[in-house]
Amino acid sequence: MKSLDDTIAAISTPAGEGGIGIVRLSGRDAIAVAERVFVSPRGRKLQEVRSHTLVHGFIVEPSTGERVDEVLAAVMRAPGTYTREDVVEINCHGGMLPLRTTLQALLRQGARLADPGEFTRRAFLNGRIDLSQAEAVIDVIRAKTEQAERLALQQLEGRLSGKITGMRSAITGLCALVEAHIDFPEDEIELKTKDEITGSVAGIRTELELLSKGYDEGRFFREGVSTAIVGKPNVGKSSLLNALLERDRAIVTEMPGTTRDIIEGSLNINGLPLRIMDTAGIRETRNLAEKEGVRRSLRAIEGADIVIAVLDASRPLEEADREVLAKVRGKRVVVVVNKVDAEIGGFSLEDSDPGAPGRDSEPSPPVIRVSAVRGEGIDVLKEEVYSLCIPRGPFSQREDVLITTVRHRDSLDRAADSLREAESSLQNDVPLEVTALFLREALDHLGEIVGMVTTDDILNRIFDEFCIGK
Ligand SMILES: Nc1nc2c(ncn2[C@@H]2O[C@H](COP(=O)(O)OP(=O)(O)OP(=O)(O)O)[C@@H](O)[C@H]2O)c(=O)[nH]1
Ligand SMILES: [Mg+2]
């Protein structure tokens, strides 16, 4: 791990031209280093001004005395700063040249170029934010919808941290109880007490499992839901894509086998971002291009979070439709019956059994009746897709916390496993030391989320995702 002793500097605004650009410095000597390249026409000294002061002046290359840029320097003293160290932010003119020359002058005066995410890493190492909050910083920057940003902000504010801390202290309490009985073996632990502890452990475990399940919802908001429209040729998949996007994205003809490649479009349903793929109609074919298209359709089904399986109400169901329905089994599926404006008398889903469950517990997929050409049923379809992704309703109306990274989900799952072990050790006649061990293990796994327990490896992986200057 790099030391916290040195002073780091980086350009913190994106590359390109802008009104202003900011070079940020953080560390013990941040103000002194900035002072060496800064001249105020009124003779003000950065080291003498009060914290959180903006000082007007010039960046000057000390070796030549040449003026590099006219700037405003923001001086912020520890600990009330982003990193909890002394920070100077130099507001330059927003071109690459003034920014780079300013940065280089600072590097020559003893600052070191910051690594990606190093400012935020220092905020974490200096205890201003915990690890889950540091991760939220990157989510805030990358958020593509308001909903995704709201989730990231909640995590940044520490809602997940609060939840984890609460559960940790509950487990710590239980652990103390168990350990108290280890220390006083003559004080045989009563069966009733054992049952009570088991009950409490199970309660926390259920909470962990719920939190872990919310991962998909968080991911959907953050990365978008990949949605594949599939079906046999000519059922109106491309027409449905166009109806959903409300524009003429894909080619539609009355010839079966029109679409060969995957056509993508983006849609936003109440803040939920969707990447929708229109695919080639699935059928046996000798045409090489179409064959490849079908192969891609099948692959799209595999990779999709949601599959919209389209049927054609203007024709009787065929074996080809049943094959498509069989291929999407086990996925989150919406069945769309399209062309209801031209429905034939005998059309029936009855014998197709779209819900024919792979496993008995699998519920039948919802069936939505649509006319892609008339735009009927499209809103109902959107609502159905939304609730398939977010079964517990819009997040803004809920109190629960959503996790957004695989790392958090893995730690939650491991913590839940440890608690399960603790429960079974209490139920069976295993020494209490073992129970205590499992409880401690759960504590460690939860600690990983907020960064109480961590390794350089985890930190590197997290902060390497950041850009330089953040
Ligand atoms: N009456 C009616 N016709 C429709 C509807 N949706 C699509 N069609 C027609 O069905 C034909 C096929 O539509 P496409 O959208 O190209 O079907 P597709 O499933 O993408 O076909 P492939 O790309 O060949 O697999 C076109 O002539 C459309 O106008 C509908 O809701 N009602
Ligand atoms: Mg098509």
TrEMBL record:
<feature type="binding site">
    <location>
        <begin position="234"/>
        <end position="239"/>
    </location>
    <ligand>
        <name>GTP</name>
    </ligand>
</feature>
<dbReference type="InterPro" id="IPR006073">
    <property type="entry name" value="GTP-bd"/>
</dbReference>
<dbReference type="InterPro" id="IPR031168">
    <property type="entry name" value="G_TrmE"/>
</dbReference>
<dbReference type="InterPro" id="IPR027368">
    <property type="entry name" value="MnmE_dom2"/>
</dbReference>
<keyword id="KW-0378">Hydrolase</keyword>
<dbReference type="InterPro" id="IPR005225">
    <property type="entry name" value="Small_GTP-bd"/>
</dbReference>
<dbReference type="GO" id="GO:0005525">
    <property type="term" value="F:GTP binding"/>
</dbReference>
<comment type="subunit">
    <text>Homodimer. Heterotetramer of two MnmE and two MnmG subunits.</text>
</comment>
<feature type="domain" description="TrmE-type G">
    <location>
        <begin position="224"/>
        <end position="390"/>
    </location>
</feature>
<dbReference type="GO" id="GO:0002098">
    <property type="term" value="P:tRNA wobble uridine modification"/>
</dbReference>
<comment type="function">
    <text>Exhibits a very high intrinsic GTPase hydrolysis rate. Involved in the addition of a carboxymethylaminomethyl (cmnm) group at the wobble position (U34) of certain tRNAs, forming tRNA-cmnm(5)s(2)U34.</text>
</comment>
<protein>
    <recommendedName>
        <fullName>tRNA modification GTPase MnmE</fullName>
        <ecNumber>3.6.-.-</ecNumber>
    </recommendedName>
</protein>
<dbReference type="Pfam" id="PF12631">
    <property type="entry name" value="MnmE_helical"/>
</dbReference>
<feature type="binding site">
    <location>
        <position position="238"/>
    </location>
    <ligand>
        <name>Mg(2+)</name>
    </ligand>
</feature>
<feature type="binding site">
    <location>
        <position position="470"/>
    </location>
    <ligand>
        <name>(6S)-5-formyl-5,6,7,8-tetrahydrofolate</name>
    </ligand>
</feature>
<keyword id="KW-0479">Metal-binding</keyword>
<dbReference type="InterPro" id="IPR027417">
    <property type="entry name" value="P-loop_NTPase"/>
</dbReference>
<feature type="binding site">
    <location>
        <position position="89"/>
    </location>
    <ligand>
        <name>(6S)-5-formyl-5,6,7,8-tetrahydrofolate</name>
    </ligand>
</feature>
<keyword id="KW-0630">Potassium</keyword>
<feature type="binding site">
    <location>
        <position position="128"/>
    </location>
    <ligand>
        <name>(6S)-5-formyl-5,6,7,8-tetrahydrofolate</name>
    </ligand>
</feature>
<feature type="binding site">
    <location>
        <begin position="278"/>
        <end position="281"/>
    </location>
    <ligand>
        <name>GTP</name>
    </ligand>
</feature>
<dbReference type="GO" id="GO:0046872">
    <property type="term" value="F:metal ion binding"/>
</dbReference>
<feature type="binding site">
    <location>
        <position position="24"/>
    </location>
    <ligand>
        <name>(6S)-5-formyl-5,6,7,8-tetrahydrofolate</name>
    </ligand>
</feature>
<dbReference type="Pfam" id="PF01926">
    <property type="entry name" value="MMR_HSR1"/>
</dbReference>
<dbReference type="Pfam" id="PF10396">
    <property type="entry name" value="TrmE_N"/>
</dbReference>
<keyword id="KW-0460">Magnesium</keyword>
<dbReference type="InterPro" id="IPR025867">
    <property type="entry name" value="MnmE_helical"/>
</dbReference>
<dbReference type="GO" id="GO:0030488">
    <property type="term" value="P:tRNA methylation"/>
</dbReference>
<dbReference type="InterPro" id="IPR004520">
    <property type="entry name" value="GTPase_MnmE"/>
</dbReference>
<dbReference type="GO" id="GO:0003924">
    <property type="term" value="F:GTPase activity"/>
</dbReference>
<dbReference type="GO" id="GO:0042802">
    <property type="term" value="F:identical protein binding"/>
</dbReference>
<comment type="similarity">
    <text>Belongs to the TRAFAC class TrmE-Era-EngA-EngB-Septin-like GTPase superfamily. TrmE GTPase family.</text>
</comment>
<dbReference type="GO" id="GO:0005829">
    <property type="term" value="C:cytosol"/>
</dbReference>
<keyword id="KW-0342">GTP-binding</keyword>
<feature type="binding site">
    <location>
        <begin position="253"/>
        <end position="259"/>
    </location>
    <ligand>
        <name>GTP</name>
    </ligand>
</feature>
<dbReference type="InterPro" id="IPR027266">
    <property type="entry name" value="TrmE/GcvT-like"/>
</dbReference>
<keyword id="KW-0547">Nucleotide-binding</keyword>
<keyword id="KW-0819">tRNA processing</keyword>
<dbReference type="InterPro" id="IPR018948">
    <property type="entry name" value="GTP-bd_TrmE_N"/>
</dbReference>
<keyword id="KW-0963">Cytoplasm</keyword>
<feature type="binding site">
    <location>
        <position position="259"/>
    </location>
    <ligand>
        <name>Mg(2+)</name>
    </ligand>
</feature>
